[in-house]
Amino acid sequence: MIHIGSGLVADTPGFSSLEFMEMEAERLSYCFPEMHKHGEDCKFRACLHDKEPKCAVKEAVDSGEIPRYRYEHYMQFLEEIRDRKPRY
Ligand SMILES: [Zn+2]
Predict the structure, then answer these.
(1) Is 54 within 8 Å of 18 (Cβ atoms)?
(2) 60 C-alpha to center of ligand 1: Å?
(3) Cα of 55 to ligand 1 centre, how many Å?
């Protein structure tokens, strides 16, 4: 659970907590430039780099190109967005 305003959002340049509250899961990787770069090689265009197969971001994390803590940070935000918004 990420507490908005506790500093976690402030640790991540690129968006404010207000923007985060309105952010779509699909746009989250735009705030993580290294993940967005690798994400262009993902098999699926709408890849969230979570459970999808042939995910270039997860491969880059496994090979050390993306620091694991950055990926975990991303996943925390993704979980937060999913908790906030019911799936359609
Ligand atoms: Zn991916």
Answers:
(1) no
(2) 10
(3) 4
Residue-wise pLDDT tens digits, 54-81: 999 999 999 999 999 999 999 999 998 8
User: If you measure from the C-alpha of residue 42 to the centroid of ligand 1, how many angstroms do you get, rounded to a whole number?
Assistant: 5
Distance 18 CA to ligand 1 centre (A): 25
CB 50 within 8 Å of CB 42: no
Domains annotated for the chain, with CATH where assigned, are 3-83 (1.10.40.50)
Q: How far is the CA of 44 from the centre of ligand 1 (A)?
A: 7
Contact between residue 23 and residue 15 where contact means Cβ atoms under 8 Å apart? yes
Q: Pick 80 or 43 by higher pLDDT.
A: 43
What phi-psi label fits residue 67: left (phi over 0), alpha (psi between -120 and 50 degrees) or beta? beta
Dist. CA 38 → ligand 1 center (Å)? 8
Q: What single-letter amino acid sits at 72?
A: E
